[in-house]
Amino acid sequence: MELAKDEELLYQNTFVKHRKIMGTLFLSSKRLVWKASDNEELQLCSYYPEIKMQKISPDTSSKVQLQLQLHNGNTFNFHFANSDGAKTERDQAKDFIQQLLIKSRKKPSKELEEKSRLLKENPELYQLYKDLVVGNIITAEEFWANRSVSRESLHKIASFDITTVCKIIFAMGQECD
């Protein structure tokens, strides 16, 4: 995982499955990243302010799991698969995430709330967000990049149909990796 200059790696676990695919879970000072072990392109990334809450599987469950629920309604389920210390590792990750969630919530983001509200109110914009961001074509930052995040401009973006938004993105020279 490549870190930004102002980002620090706090936790790493190479025995974490997502959708039955083995991978590595990274927790940095700014975001959570999961990368598949056998496919460098398959990954998840979520910044802590995007995470609404986390849940863990009960101790009686056969799988040691951590579920993250995002503000946009998506969920990520992680299965800690190291037979020797799965519960301890899951609890360590949960504690790190909890501390980082608290830290990130100390700075309430009106911008994030506005974006979330716009996505909830506009199904076409939400679908575009899911297709591009959740589909790992572009990051959330890239999705909102080159757009002034004032209320007026966000409302203007939300009023476009999906075809118009796609035309705007490509006209602005957005590149998808």
Task: Give the SSE map.
Blueprint: E1 9-18, E2 21-28, E3 31-36, E4 43-47, E5 51-56, E6 65-70, E7 75-80, H1 86-105, H2 110-121, H3 123-134, H4 140-144, H5 151-159, H6 162-171
Antiparallel strand pairs: 1-2, 1-7, 2-3, 3-4, 5-6, 6-7
Helix pairs in contact: 2-3, 2-5
Overview of this structure, please?
With 177 residues, the protein is an alpha+beta fold. Helices cover 38% and strands 27% of the residues. Strands 4-3-2-1-7-6-5 form a seven-stranded antiparallel β-sheet, with helices on one face. Strand 2 and strand 3 form a beta hairpin. The longest helix has 20 residues, at 86-105. The radius of gyration is 17 Å and the shape is globular. 19% of the residues are buried. The model has no long low-confidence stretch (mean pLDDT 82).
> Helical amount among residues, as a percent range?
25-40%
Order of helices and strands: EEEEEEEHHHHHH
How many separate helices? 6
Overall geometry comes to globular
Measured by DSSP, the beta-strand proportion falls in: 25-35%
Mean pLDDT score, rounded?
Answer: 82
Provide the spatial order of strands within the biggest beta sheet.
Answer: 4-3-2-1-7-6-5
Distance between the termini: 16 Å
> Sheet bearing the most strands, described?
7 strands, antiparallel
Q: Spans with pLDDT under 50 lasting ≥5 residues?
A: none
Calculate Rg over CA atoms. Answer: 17 Å
| Structural class assignment | alpha+beta
- Report the strand count: 7
